[in-house]
Design brief:
By secondary structure, the chain is of the alpha/beta class. The protein is about 50% helix and about 15% strand. α9 packs parallel to α11.
Length: about 325
Amino acid sequence: MDGAHAPIWIMRQAGRYLPEYREIKLRATFEEMTRDPSIAAEITLQPLRRFQLDAAIVFADIMTPLEALGIDVRFDPGPKIAEPIRTAAQVDGLRRTGPIAPFVGETLRLARRALPDGVALIGFGGAPLTLAAYVIEGGGSKDFERFRGLLRAEPQTLHRLLDALSDLTIDYLRMQIDAGADAVQLFDSWAGLHDEPTFREFGVPYAARIMRALEPTGVVRTYFGLNAAHLLDAIDEIPSEIVGVDWRTSLRRARTRLGRTVQGNLDPAVLFADSETIVAQTQNVLEDGRGGAHVFNLGHGIWPETPLDSVRLLIDTVHGYDRS
């Protein structure tokens, strides 16, 4: 769930999970919710109070750790960078200003204590290439013109920024693991912007460095690149136990190319269809995931207006599927 969707989803749906939390969540901004571990932990746990899920994912945003580099991020409702980083001098001036999002660590500790045995807790961070896209552009964009322009005009400047973001993300994910995360996921939301040679130069080395740094922890590592079917050969060079695949790519094809556990990948739009379609499309994904380990998930996030009954039907269909 990205920062743009999270506050809308929580404010509209939180009271439907636990009405006693309705008032405080409606008053809180996204920043306030993520920075208050008691609220963030409750939001992390809410889906499991209503649905039989196998894991909880911490309520945060991929932009959260940037403050520790002195980068001011606000949500209105999507991420906005007060002073975009667009020059070599700005990149060279980035310095750690304090601990990295300690409130996320406390959120994880609170959620870990409340989760039942056998339910995993997932932490996450943003891949350096995606974080750089926001930091340079100043926020979300359809084409990320400024980011892609700087990539071509000043590649060494971008490489130095990616180095700094990689170091930040390694420390951020290690902190989450120390706080109780059983698995971590690296989200590369804008990987699909790039052709394969560009992604190999600016994406693969940094994502791979992060994953290698986490290997000694023994946690499960997942890499997810959105709209990245054309990058599967390059993604195969990023070490991880699991690769997330969006709804545009066949799980069977991805498994053949990657040779590891795949995650995904029901189109979230299916949850607005009738019951028969939801069941049929869910079963299609489950069939496509056969031939090896498969973590069932939506192909990318959940939309704010998704009917809760559709979510329940989806979960029941997955639980009722016989893989034998």
